[in-house]
Amino acid sequence: MNLSGREMGILRTIGFGLGISGAELEERTQIAAEDLCDILNGLIEVGFVESRSLTEHVAVTEFATESFEINPSYANDLKLAMKR
Q1: Residue 62 contacts by C-beta under 8 Å, 6 or more apart in sequence?
Q2: In angstroms, rounded to a whole number, what is the distance separating the alpha carbons of residues 30 and 83?
Q3: Would you kindly state where each structural domain of the chain is located, as residue ranges?
Q4: 27-66 as b/e: b if 16+ CB within 10 A
Q5: What pLDDT, in 10s, does the model give residues 14-42?
Q6: Considering only CA atoms, which of 76, 81, 6 is closest in space to residue 40?
Q7: Which of 8, 24, 44, 76 has the smallest CB count inside 10 Å?
Q8: What distance in Å separates the CA atoms of residue 62 and residue 72, rounded to the nearest whole number?
Q9: What is the CATH number of domain 5-83?
């Protein structure tokens, strides 16, 4: 499992608990909305992250009000990958 630094930062910010809103994620990571949306859509596409509404693609205009969480099926694998 190869994750970029930005992907790992986003996954750490989302956390393995309750998840986080898109607006809070943008505020905490300080990544531009367009870039953040691209990274989130990539993580959603491979299944590592889920949106609470279960959409398969999140638009820049919608992501701030959406909530994101780590897919529990990948949680252990992601924890191991981020420790390396």
Answers
A1: none
A2: 23
A3: 5-83
A4: eebebeeeebbebbbebbeeebbbbeeeeeebeeeebbeb
A5: 998 888 999 999 999 999 999 999 999 99
A6: 6
A7: 76
A8: 23
A9: 1.10.10.10
